[in-house]
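Customer ticket, subject: "Can you confirm the structure for Helix-turn-helix domain-containing protein?"

Message body: Hello, I'm evaluating your service for our small team and ran a test protein. I'd like someone to confirm that this is what the system normally returns, since I don't have a reference to compare against.
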Amino acid sequence: MIDRTGLAEFLRRRRESLQPEDVGLPRGQRRRTNGLRREEAAALCHMSTDYYARLERERGPHPSEQMIASIAQGLHLSLDERDHLFRLAGHTPPARGPAGDYISPGLLRVFDRLADTPAEIVTELGETLRQTPLGVALTGDTTRYTGPARSLGYRWFTDPETRARYAREEHEFLSRMFASGLRQIATLRGPDSRAARYVALLLAESEDFRRVWDQHEVGIRPNETKRFVHPEVGDLELTCQHLVDPDQSHNLLVYTAIPGSESYDKLQLLSVIRSQTWLAPPST
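Agent reply: Thanks for trying us out. I re-ran your input and got the following:
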């Protein structure tokens, strides 16, 4: 059963405890509100201000599990706080661990400060949870996929468009790397895991996967340098740095180029192209 009073008070306190800079928002010069405004919190939670305000006023419909999950992520709640929020709303908290998509507040705080850099948060299976705008410009919106296609490793063996984003001379290494990683994760998580299901699907669907899978390789690590092929700016050679959340097995990937290099100039050009695309009037 929903605890409307407890839910309202908890949401209000959490909203008021957050500062704009905690969630990647500008503070502005005329801020009088303690913490975030309701409209800011609502935007972070991907809901209308009216809906969010009604929850804080102990009114409105019973929020769904999906809505509560969105609120928990938007307000940067810890896992304990997230679970508490679910119980206040009358729901069972989601399972914790590597199968979950919930991003820790610490990882989100780092991510929120990377707006001008290509970056993404991914699961251990390469499922994209968040991308910065320049990350979308670099690799496309990889959060749009559903089902097994959410996994970059799965798409690598089933989607030619995914392979086209990477330098052709890297393809053999990447095939071996993705198969190696999937083997390790499937063994670690067990036969009922999502990784094991992806293995079964790929064995049935991809001859290339079957070929590298039969080599039984493990421990092939990603190269620090990634070579992308972008449809607008061409070849890019970027350094990829990893920050790992051990509790959720999520990775924050940050892509940078050596200052003064050709790839650095292309990355700046890509940022300009992205800005112009956003500012362009809609076609009629």
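A couple of notes from the result: The mean pLDDT is 91. The two ends are 50 Å apart (CA to CA). Feel free to reply with more questions.
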